[in-house]
Amino acid sequence: MAVSFYEHVKLPGDAAGETLLFLFHGTGGDERQLVALGQQVVPGATIIAPLGDVSEHGAARFFRRTGEGVYDMDDLRRAVDKMGAFIAAHIGETQAKRVLGLGYSNGANILASVIFAQPNMFDQAVLMHPLIPFKPEIGGNLATRILLTAGRRDPICPPDLTNRLVSWLEAAEGDVVTEWHEGGHELRESEVDAARSFFASAAGQQEPAPIRQESGPRRGRYVYSIEGDEAELTYALSDGRMIIDHTYVPPDLREKGIALKLVERAVEDARERGLKVTPLCSYAAAQFRRHREWQDLLA
Length: 299
Description:
alpha/beta, 5-stranded mixed beta sheet, single chain, Rossmann fold, Aminopeptidase, 2 domains, 299 residues
């Protein structure tokens, strides 16, 4: 049966059993490599962690490669089909309402490849240091929200390839957040924190973002302040409309999803106040294109 396609660990979550978290280890790891991390970033989730079925000089992987960064594409297709069936079987067995994925290195690559093939399978996914050296064929609009973490000095996953992957995901209407650190291929605590916040945000568990509103009769702004830096979204009010005309995030706060948080706050307030929204700012306009649930607010 497909639920047994891979050796794996399954750790039951809380009594509700509504959240299912799949974990995919890196080359040379095993099915337990990321379990503690998974429990840390999504407390209470049921965890499924498969062991890669390919051995490279004794190191477990999820698909074969012929060299560093050179993939056996036939074997990758085999792995995607097999893993997709494995994941679907466990989703069906648990009847989970929320399906999450987290993978590191080779595990991020197989997770990403499954998402390319089935862009509606996961609600959210964290890709830690993925290397995708080919242009993916994504099977439809990307419904999975993605956090991608990377190192600016990663010798295995160079930043230019990471940025290229982000651009491909965004071209497929993906909602993508990035988290960078200044190191290489190692996992750092900032990535763990980012993953925890990313998963918690959709579960309604995240503490309110430090955003304040400054409003006048005709103009206002939302401000995200931390450690002396300020990001802002400005707007005008006219004829029952909130006209978003500018967003700015200072360099030290970029690539943390803060601009999106500002737009989300503006949208939430506009809806509560019965206002329509005109997104003149290019960033806000792009977010409206990606968030179909906001379309009723457009003016």
